[in-house]
Design a protein that fits this description.
Helix 2 runs parallel beside helix 12 and helix 4 crosses helix 6. Helices cover 46% and strands 18% of the residues. The longest helix has 18 residues. Strand 5 and strand 6 form a beta hairpin. The protein has a single domain, classed as Alpha-Beta Barrel (TIM Barrel), CATH 3.20.20.30. The chain is an alpha/beta fold. The radius of gyration is 19 Å and the shape is globular.
Length: 319
């Protein structure tokens, strides 16, 4: 199969816990999907993040294992809540994993949400007031980039005072690409314009995608920054079946994953559940709006089956 240079697969680092019930999670499913995705030509594999709010396998540990078990695919986070981690620790881990992978890491970062007590508690439990998360995220990005390239990094003010820190190892990549997530959030879109090497979004309409992209471009123009070359990445949840089965299985997945039904989730993030043609049409529409990279999450307990169906029925029409 032709290489899929603009297509990645989200691994079920949460799904294996959700479907394990009270038993041991099938961690090996993540390696199986990643190794298969690499073999058949996908460009990347991705892991999500949360610590206590939506339990899953710890992303950095999984990325290190993936780095050792694969040789070509890029390995990314979609997305990591970096405000939950000190930037010296995170920069050290990412640089180490970039070395294990020989330069294949993409760091997707997000600020997360504050609209649920479980998110507030998650931040509180690691010592981060949730109202500080955006400021910490932005400061952390700047510091990590310095720690990856400079000696004796100091930071007198802010959330993370540093005094003459030199971090080793350096990443294999001169700068690990940082892709920032945002939907229609003004500060988030401004952050993409100011700090992003890429933009990750899951907005549920092409109209909103176009509106967000326009805001990023306007903000970048104000700063004198050229963002024409940043990746514009759409995170899309799919279930590939006949319409009724897709909606039924996808709804059960969303209820297990988020605790809320598909009807609610689909108003907040892009879900395309149904036939291959329905998914092909949606991807073409977002491509037309400017999306040039896609992370696909399979909203199904049958991950390998969905990967096979997607690869056979959808990829040839969009690649």
């Amino acid at each position: 199969m032709e290489p899929m240079n603009s297509m990645g697969v989200l691994l079920p680092t949460r799904g294996v816990l959700v479907y394990a019930k009270s038993g041991k999670p099938r961690v090996e499913l993540n390696w199986q999907i990643a190794e298969t995705a690499e073999r058949i030509g996908y460009d990347s594999v991705w892991v999500g993040d949360s610590i206590t709010s939506k339990p899953r396998l710890e992303p950095l540990a999984v990325m290190a294992a993936l780095a050792a078990r694969t040789s070509r695919v890029k390995i990314g986070t979609a997305v990591m809540l970096n405000a939950l981690r000190h930037p010296v620790h995170l920069a050290h881990s990412v640089a180490t994993i970039d070395n294990i992978s020989d330069g294949r890491i993409i760091l997707g970062l997000g600020a997360g949400r504050s609209n649920n007590q479980m998110f507030v508690d998650e931040h509180s439990n690691v010592g981060v007031p949730i109202e500080e998360r955006a400021g910490r995220m932005e400061e952390s990005i700047d510091l990590m980039r310095k720690l990856w390239t400079q000696d004796n990094v100091s930071n007198a003010d802010g959330f993370y005072p540093l005094n003459g820190v030199t971090l080793e190892p350096r990443p294999v990549q001169e700068q690990v690409p940082i892709w920032l997530s945002s939907n229609w959030v003004q500060r988030g879109l401004g952050r993409v314009a100011a700090q992003g090497d890429g933009w990750i979004t899951n907005v549920p309409s092409t109209e909103m995608f176009t509106k967000c992209l326009g805001r990023i471009e306007d903000k970048a123009s104000e700063m004198g920054r050229d963002v024409t070359k940043i990746k514009r990445c759409l995170y899309i949840s799919v279930n590939l079946n006949d319409e009724d089965n897709a909606i039924d299985e996808g709804d059960k997945f969303m209820r297990a994953y988020y605790g809320i039904p598909y009807e609610v989730v689909s108003k907040q993030l892009l879900c395309v559940f149904g036939t291959a043609q329905k998914i092909i049409d949606a991807i073409h529409q977002y491509k037309g709006a400017g999306a040039d990279y896609f992370i696909v999450r399979f909203a199904s307990p049958n991950q390998m089956e969905q990967l096979d169906k997607f690869t056979e029925a959808v990829v040839p029409a969009i690649n």
